[in-house]
Specification:
Length: 568
């Protein structure tokens, strides 16, 4: 990911040739990384992200992007035939065991590394057990032609070994062959120097004394004509003293579907309060500017707005507010036909129709609103000053059916805490769903103590959880957030606490001071399909909530936030 200038980030949606549909990109450190040619002539495989960052400015060409891991379920879901996989350790070790090797004993031996053996072990195993060569030393012979294979064999046989490094003549053919095979080497002006040369030489039918054990006449016609001579796999298997598998028989092309998304979901432009101000707030939709706008009669903040007509059930006062300004009682929507003046009532389905005109009736009507008074009253109600925020942004108009504006007090507190409102009055943050099975505390910028506090007692091997680098299985109910999401949740929690205390007169709930306070907090899923977030979660939770949106509030918290009778 680093070597392609971070074009792909964690969470980027890509469209792949197979098995189909789209995928979310996540880094995997258990598969082979890219092979690159550096400006100094060195061809090197990069498996460490820190190394990739160090050398990326010196990369002259990316020869191979490495392996791509996709789960079997994607093929099943898309009804796509399984494509031939690359020859990897997991495949090789089964063939090694079938050939008669005591794999379990080797795994128990601390001196044996089955996955990354040294050259002597790999060659000895292939010879003694008559099994394919280990994938660590299996090159991409299917990517070179038979002619290039023969030219490379002649060059290796004519080379010299100096201080354990094989030097062969540098020609365009041999250099291109080594790069296509992904053999790590260093190119000098007149030679190609190969440090780990014995697996290459043995595969080419050349012994440790650089003696070629075959001639061109020994190659069969079938090997020469395989894939029109552009694939040397059959040829290499005729001359090598062991079987050599196809290392990467399938290539996968892909393109970016959409960039990674992990950011606040805002309206365009972003707003703090769903209170209409028409054009009075200027291009910034500044509520303070609209409140100070003077009309022709010399009054400040008097605006004709399309808002809901509501009536107090106790005193009969008409207002646009959800709460009567005189007696504090929750107001009801007032439906009056604009043509004949008939007061209407909603039916059982909530639909309102004038019985005389047979027109659908809404509670929306144009009213003169004293925005200056409403704005100043909102600041006073929540005990805030204009210096608490940089700007308070409203909307030009409401899009809801009855056009009930929300209290400006909520917008003041959103602006103070640095969050914005979506069109339904919610505070949202979009991320990409990425299933994950295991995590380490140090990777999450937390400690093992945090994990123990929320119930994690052992790692994946059953060992007591004591250290930050131990791998633990992520439980089905737990999710991992991005840094941006954590910061947004802190801001949202601050807004909710201020709303509870300063507007509703209730106790603060979260009282967060830092990111660590988020660990162990309860969230619940609720809502829209095909929403994509940068949220790491267990496979079980991912399946259970496909098409569900996560929320920062639990149902208990949501019930506490909105007392009965408040709002529509």
């Amino acid at each position: 990911m680093h070597l392609v200038d971070d074009f792909l980030a964690a969470g980027t949606q890509i469209k792949t040739e197979r098995p189909g549909k789209a995928h979310g990109v996540i880094p995997v450190d258990s598969i082979e990384g890219p092979t690159v040619r550096l400006a100094n002539g060195e061809v090197r495989r990069i498996d460490d992200p820190e190394e990739a960052k160090e050398i990326r400015n010196g990369v002259e060409k990316v020869l191979d992007l490495g392996e791509y891991l996709v789960n079997y379920g994607e093929f099943v879901e898309n009804n796509h035939p399984l494509a031939p996989a690359s020859y990897v350790y997991e495949w090789w070790v089964q063939e090694f065991e079938t050939a008669g090797a005591d794999v379990q004993a080797m795994r128990d031996d601390p001196h044996v590394d089955l996955e990354h053996p040294d050259v002597d072990e790999a060659l000895a195993w292939a010879r003694e057990y008559d099994c394919p060569l280990h994938p660590e030393y299996t090159y991409l012979w299917h990517d070179v032609s038979v002619d290039a294979f023969e030219a490379l064999a002649d060059a290796v046989a004519a080379g010299d070994v100096v201080e354990g490094v094989l030097a062969i003549e540098r020609t365009e053919t041999t250099q291109h062959a080594l790069e296509s095979l992904l053999v790590q080497h260093v190119a000098t002006p007149d030679a190609l120097r190969i440090p780990t040369w014995r697996p290459l030489a043995r595969s080419l039918g050349i012994d440790d004394g650089l003696r070629k054990t075959w001639s061109a006449d020994d190659l069969s016609a079938a090997a020469r004509e395989w894939d029109d001579g552009e694939n040397a796999v059959k040829a290499i298997n005729e001359v090598a003293p062991f079987e050599i598998r196809e290392r990467a028989p399938t290539r996968i092309g892909n393109r970016m579907g959409r960039p990674e998304k992990s950011e606040s979901r805002d309206l365009s432009p972003a707003v703090h309060t769903l209170f209409p101000i028409n054009e009075a707030g200027g291009p910034q939709r500044d509520v303070a500017e609209a409140a100070g706008t003077m009309d022709d009669s010399g009054h400040r903040g008097r605006l004709d707005l399309e808002v809901s007509d509501r009536v107090c059930p106790d005193c009969g006062e008409h207002t646009y507010r959800a709460q009567c300004p005189d007696c504090g009682v929750h107001t009801d929507l007032h439906y009056e036909c604009g043509d004949c003046g008939t007061v209407c009532e909603p039916d059982e389905a909530g639909r309102v129709e004038c019985p005389r005109c047979e027109w659908e009736v809404t509670a929306a009507t144009y009213q003169e609103v004293d925005l200056n008074d409403a704005y100043r009253s909102a600041l006073e109600t929540v005990g805030e000053r204009e210096s608490a925020f940089e700007i308070l942004k409203g909307v030009q108009g409401l899009t809801s059916r009855n056009k009930t504006p929300e209290p400006i007090e909520k917008g003041v507190l959103r602006a103070k805490n640095g969050v914005t409102s979506f069109k339904d009055g919610t505070v949202r943050y979009d991320m990409t769903d990425l299933p994950v099975t295991s995590v380490r505390a140090e990777e999450l910028d937390i400690t093992a103590d945090h994990l123990r506090e929320i119930g994690y007692e052992t790692d994946i091997d059953g060992e007591p959880l004591r250290h930050d680098d131990q791998l633990v299985e992520l439980r089905v109910q737990d999710i991992v957030l991005s840094d941006g999401a954590a910061e947004h949740m802190l801001k949202t929690a601050g807004f909710v606490d201020d709303l509870l205390e300063q507007f509703y007169g209730l106790d603060r709930f979260y009282e967060f001071n830092e990111r660590d306070d988020l660990v162990g907090e309860l969230v619940f899923g609720d809502g829209a399909a095909h929403e994509r977030r940068n949220c790491r979660e267990s496979g079980g939770f991912h399946v259970g909530r496909r098409g569900i949106r996560s929320s920062v509030l639990s149902r208990r918290q949501a019930a506490q936030l909105l007392p009965p009778g408040d709002g529509d």
